[in-house]
Amino acid sequence: MAWFILFLAGLSEIAWAVGLKYTQGFTKPFLSFLTVFFLFLSIGLLGLSMKSLPMSLAYSVWVVIGMLGTVFSGVLLFGDALSVTKLVSILLIVCGVIGLKISS
């Protein structure tokens, strides 16, 4: 169950990170409210998952889910560039988290 909660925390992180872009500097009240809601939800779920999972692993997985989601959301929604260097860098980060999981 902790892994599922952590996954939801990561999805919530993606939601608030993407939401930041849509708030246009917090000038859109409803979108700003949703962004802050998902920010608190993400951190709350991360904390809940840490009751059962090691802190270093839970935080790292949370960051990777958020990073992957925001990078690909940026590409799909906002036309952000995705270069080979960015892809290799993402892969290295993911490999690092896999290494943490293996060593736990």
Give an account of the 3D structure.
The chain is an all-alpha fold and 104 residues long. The protein has one domain. Helices cover 83% and strands 0% of the residues. The protein is built from four helices and no strands. The longest helix has 24 residues, at 55-78. It starts with a helix and ends with a helix. The model has no long low-confidence stretch (mean pLDDT 95).
Layout: helices, strands, pairs:
Layout: H1 2-22, H2 29-49, H3 55-78, H4 84-103
Helix pairs in contact: 1-2, 1-3, 3-4
Features of the shown structure:
single chain, 104 residues, mainly alpha
Can you tell me the number of structural domains? 1
Radius of gyration, whole Å: 15 Å
Strand content: under 5%
Average predicted local confidence, pLDDT:
95
**Gap between N and C termini, in Å?**
18 Å
Number of strands: 0
The helix tally amounts to: 4
Low-pLDDT residue intervals, each spanning 5 or more residues: none
The major β-sheet equals: none
Helical content band? over 70%
Shape: flat
Overall SS class: mainly alpha
Strand/helix succession: HHHH
Quick description:
This is Guanidinium exporter. This protein is mainly alpha-helical and 104 residues long.
